[in-house]
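pls ignore typos typing on phone
glutamine + seq
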Amino acid sequence: MKKLTMLAIAAVAAYMFTGCAKQDDSLKMITEATFPPYEFLRGQEIAGIDVEICKAVAAKLGKKFQAETVDFDSVIPAVISGKADLAAAGITITEDRKKNVDFSDPYVKTGIVVIYKKSNPFKDKDQLKGKKIGVQAGTTSETFVTDQLKQEPERSKSPAEAVAALKAGRVEFVIADIDPAKNCVKGEADLALSDFITSEEYAVAIRKGQPELLKAINETIAEVKKDGRLAKWIADFTAEADKLKDK
Ligand code: GLN
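k done
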């Protein structure tokens, strides 16, 4: 057998028989853990607001909980293919995504902002035209640049990587969701954030045609909003992610 074929078989086997595979009695969350405070790595563990929401859904369904992190542009494909049950990664509800997945009720109202150097202040959207703009690949910040500004952004794997490019002078501005943006500029005296340039809402995404699962997620979201758990997670994980940044 050719070496490459053997490697491919080994990779598939490893995928099927290791922790990556979904266990039947568990609810598997797929996320992208570079997005504090919604999801970030606490050592090896994936922690954050979205993780708690998905854990609460698993508890409601009496299932074990599993979580895995992949690049953001692989998060939605993972629920479409059935590799995972819940996609939660600060995912904005968009008309385009609605064609491929079902969204839960929203759990946060938010939006994207411009991160800029104080030595090169951001004033308005027109100023972004023709400039090198860093974004995380596959996000609404990317579509803002391609669809509204009609230009190509510089794509990174995470908001932090995009901000590193800004600091190094490889891009002139970065666009990212407000909370990870705040985390990125924390302790960076020369960086600042604009006001919102869009209005967005986060929700959990699942493979289409699962009304029972959707109902369980929506009930969970309503409960954690009402009993104050969501507000507490937002406060606690924001504080924890800020501290990780200080280290
Ligand atoms: N909210 C943005 C989006 O859905 C970014 C999400 C993320 O990078 N995790 O595209």
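The chain has nine helices and 15 strands. The first strand starts at residue 26 and ends at 31. more later
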